[in-house]
Amino acid sequence: MLSKNGGGMEGARAAQQQESLYGWRYIDGGYEGGGVTGLRHVRFLRPVQVAARGDFVFIVDAGAELLYRYELARDQLTVVMDLKGVTLGEVSDIYVYQDHSFLLVDPDSARVLHFSSNGQLIRTFEDRLNLIRPVAVTYDEEMGRVLIADGSSDDVLVFTFTGELQGVIGTRGVSEGKFLNITAITSGGDGIYITSRLGHRVQVMGRDGRHVNTFQSDTVVFPLAVAVDKGHNAFVSDYLDNSIKVFRDGLFLESIGGSGAGPGRFKRISDLWYDGGFLYAVDSLNGRIQILRVEMVEPAVSDDEEDLVEGVETTEMPVATETTVLTDDVTDAVSEDMAPADEMSAAQHELEAAQAELERIQAELAAARAELEAAKGQGDGAASTNNAPAAPDEALPEPSQMSDTPDSDIQE
Q1: Is the distance from CB of 180 to CB of 197 less than 8 angstroms?
Q2: N or C, fewer C-beta in 10 Å, the chain?
Q3: 42-97 pLDDT, tens per residue?
Q4: 252: Cβ contacts below 8 Å, ≥ 6 apart
Q5: Would you call 53 exposed, middle or buried from its count of C-beta atoms within 10 A (0-12, 13-18, 19+)?
Q6: Phi, psi of 351 (to 5 degrees)
Q7: SS (H, E, C) 262-308
Q8: Please, which residues have CB within 8 angstroms of residue 306's CB and are 6 or more apart in sequence?
Q9: What is the helix (H) or strand (E) element at residue 396, kind and residue range?
Q10: Which helix (H) or strand (E) segment is 68 a member of?
Q11: HSE-CB of 240 using CA atoms within 13 angstroms
Q12: How would you label 361-383 residue by residue, b for 16+ Cβ within 10 Å and e otherwise?
């Protein structure tokens, strides 16, 4: 995990439900070319802006004056556009749509340019009266609007997707809902996140233009970039100490990073972008893009909540235990009463054979008795002496014993 520092008492309380950033990988260039021209590794000179969609990362390199598209799986770098002659000055922000068309902010020409995925100009967002010096752009997917922050009047202009000006959010000032020296904007599930160098440095504005929230004060000194995930967790880069400040619902959680050139260290974080569980941070003066994995940390359970959970478990567990015991008993009973099919078949054959043997012995016994009765009727003394009457019925062997008596003994 990257180095991180708490935020005092408030940070300790907020850490109960913190979200941490873990180093994953970094991009400092890639392979350019193909089978015909050959491959060569190109390094970034001074990346300043980043946007990512799935496996593709778009990087504005102000040093080379190029817009690159980097493919993560193949480490392949493609030049999308040569920015020389396209923009009058350095691009201050980029936004990439789902279809990989993109917006570029050109402050010096007071325009925001919309290009197709292959670099063809689609439309231009401009307004000579209201858009004096655009500094940042984002797309509000929920409302289908393009939002452009103006660094001259310190407000956010709202355009339709096709470029018509609809309205404005905020105004210049130091109170809530007002801004002084806007540096970045992004759209989140609960509103529009706006960072400023002075006054209230991070604020959330509703889509109706009303103030929603102001982030905890004295946590960010000089915000340069902001990104938001779907869980209302905000990541703000601080130019003062080269760190990324993590917030949830405006509450400061932790500070990650710091000045340096190693993993998880930065020199001027000029842009942030969140996509698919990863935070892309432009480490501009180190010439790279650091990709950090965002991992959720389960909220700590308070004593009251723990007692409530234990109460629920106490109520529910006996039911689960009885069900388990009942299931085990039934399983044991079935195991005792039921034998495998092969064993049952063999036992059935043995029983049928024993019954047939018993019937045969009973028939022979009946025949023997008939012979004895016949001999007695003839009055032969020797026959009477040698052929004693049969024993009473109760003295007869049980059927199971008779089945073991040899035939010769019965004849005798």
Answers
A1: yes
A2: C
A3: 999 999 999 999 999 999 999 999 999 999 999 999 999 999 999 999 999 999 99
A4: 7, 10, 11, 14, 215, 216, 219, 245, 246
A5: middle
A6: -65, -45
A7: CCCCECCEEEEEEECCEEEEEEHHHCEEEEEEEEECCCCCCHHHHHH
A8: none
A9: none
A10: strand 66-71
A11: 10
A12: beeeeeeeeeebeeeeeeeeeee
Residue 384 dihedral angles phi and psi, to the nearest 5°: -70, -40
Find all residues with CB under 8 Å of 45, minimum gap 6, and list them. Answer: 61, 62, 63, 64, 287
Q: Please say whether the beta carbons of 254 and 26 come within 8 A.
A: no
The Cα–Cα gap between 213 and 351 comes to 86
Residue 153, helix vs strand vs coil: coil
Mean pLDDT value across residues 203-223: 95
Residue with tokens 């967790």: 233
pLDDT tens per residue across span 383-401: 444 444 444 344 434 444 4
In this structure, which CATH number among 3.40.50.2300, 1.10.10.10, 2.40.50.140, 2.120.10.30 belongs to the domain 4-300?
Answer: 2.120.10.30
Q: Which of 263, 238, 276, 158 is nearest to 206 (CA)?
A: 158
CB atoms near residue 314 (< 10 Å): 9
Residues 6+ apart with CB under 8 A from 316: none
SS3 9: helix
